[in-house]
Fold each of these.
Amino acid sequence: MSNNTVRRERDSLGARDVPKNAYYGIQTLRAVENFPVSGIMARPEFINAYAMVKKAAALANLEIGWLEPYVAEAIVSACDEIAAGKLHDQFVVDDFQAGAGTSFNMNVNEVIANRALELVGKRKGDYSTIHPNDHVNMSQSTNDTYPTAMRLCVLIIAQDLLDNLELLRRAFTRKGMEYQKILKSGRTHLMDALPVTLGQEFMAYSVAIKKSRDQLKGALKLLEEMPMGATAVGTGANTHPDYQRMVVKHLRSITNLNLIESEDPREALQSRLCVSSVSSAMRNLALELIRISNDLRLMNSGPTTGLAEIKLPETQPGSSIMPGKVNPVMVECMDMISFQIVGNDVAVAMAVQAGQFELNVMNPVMVHNLLESMVLLNNYLPVFVEKCISGIEANEDKCKSYLEKNPSLATFLQPHIGYEKAALVAKEAMKRHMSIRDLVLEKGIMTKAEVDSIFDWEYLSGEQKVDKRHK
């Protein structure tokens, strides 16, 4: 390269030419060369969270008196710019990188240092004034900054996810209320079973989402303990006695999150229980979303040879060869997203158990997968609610038709005529393709008033708890 397009930088391994206009430096350059893995770089949310961590550290070191005011102010200004979305193209380290995230931490340190140098009127690479390690990384290690940024990022993104899950829960609740009186055949083992209402099924989906959301919200509390101040092995080496308290105080102010100091800094570096707990909650949520989506696919199946109890909104043509075919694409997409979340959790689980002694170095793969899971749902849930759940239509005639032919309705005869006789009625009804109701009336087993009482929708659905055994 021409001397006009590069600047010379040195580290402990030697000297290298870095692009002159780059805000990153020599250590970032080495990482780019060492890890040309996926082409996937840090998400903007993680970059922003890391800038918040560096800002809090600079403010704490300024308050302590370890950083000169003009240096601290330049670092804080650079961090504010990055957190506002600037210079994100300078974070060029692959998500799959050196253990612990050292490469990315140095990428952050170098970008902040070089932007801070510009702000004080110095040229990039003039580290005698503001140094990536000595100033930007003061009182820090990758081992405490990276997991702190992980926690902050997940907590911040999770706020939107909790809101989006509440949006989904309410959508299911509205459908539950809308269809509360539409009786249909229940199914167990994929076979005809006792009646439920379509509304009851949707209300159950609403409760499942609520429980999954509550579990996720509870797991997120574990992330509020901040590892900052632990430095390399949890002993707080090279920090002021008041630094941990001060840096967490500044993080609380910057993020408006309820952050606390770690109960034990050693545990904060060794364990990733907090991460696995959130990832597990995401997996459990995904399993519920898969189950519910597959129910909706089955109820929508048809229109002539499936169940066709509901109709999902038509959002696009379904076939390149079959004219007029429309597929349940929105729930299919939800399934695929959920499968990915389950797979991501496996990767997180393997990383969480891979820590040894004073550190778990597998942080980058944890945050990559956990953030992907959360971002996928944040991107899709509002669309899913709008274009799928809110537009579901019930096929009441089809539900009624299936229910009338359901032999399991003979169950409600059992208290009146006994199990054996009820079973014979069920078999004859199936053989003759008759409804239980009509067969009971034809045979004079019960009066019309008794039949009407038993086959009332409130009684069949369990909404009416009156004992009708001897009435």
Note: Residues 185 and 253 are 55 Å apart (CA to CA).
Amino acid sequence: MGESPYIHNVSMQNFQNLVLENSMNKPVLVDFWADWCQPCQTIMPMLAKLAEEYAGKFELAKVNADAEQELAAHFGIKSLPTMKLFFKGQIVDERMGAVPESDIREMLDKHIVSESDQFIQAATMAYQQGHTEQALEMLNQALARDPDNAELKISIAQMVHAQGDSTSALTLLDSLDEDGNKLDPAVKLRAEINLAAQLADLPALDEIEQRLSQNPADLEALLQKSRHLVARGDYDDAMECLLTIMRNDRSFEDDAGRTGLLEIFDLLGGEHPSVQKYRRKLFTLLH
């Protein structure tokens, strides 16, 4: 076990280096154990197997709680085995007892950055620095290695849409599976593309306002105004227009008021305060 590059015997003297500093780059699973602890002996081979299987995606740090009583006391170890997962210098999760392998895997996988995630992070940084072609090349190389990765497809779609190629962006979104389509970034991007398309053939806002001054119940003008307002970021005013349409005629363009509201909800995301406010208004109106 000691010969593995991914498994370390840790003491008070090397804890800073092997655990805290290593955890800034990858998760470090600290296993507090003792010779007399039978569950510890049971779980040790499984942890060692996982360390080898993950091949450096996390480090396994072994702390003999009897030999390192000060370290065990510092972390409040009450029973053995106790496993604490460190990431970015902090304890992010823990388990006690001879837990099943699936539980350990689940704990690790939450905090391990995949190769595809690393590509996305690097590409995003390149894109933010203005290196769009380099960013897209990195993402496409990653997608060639991992063709079913929804996050990669969405990241590419976001970039090509920002460059004005909504057709390619929609093609990528359409290739997502059911779970991928439910991811918040995919939902938001699709809503953004749909709303942008609706602006293409709209009359000028001044012309729409003139029509409404003559006829405040002009539902087509209200719908067109809501789309201009969304483009300007005036989401609350846009949603008020759509609620007015619903109050006047639910059948207008196949319930365009409600459809428009749902599109804005998708665009902003469920946690946005305006979405929460207008979801309540929509519920009240429907019921």
Note: The CA atoms of residues 30 and 206 lie 65 Å apart.
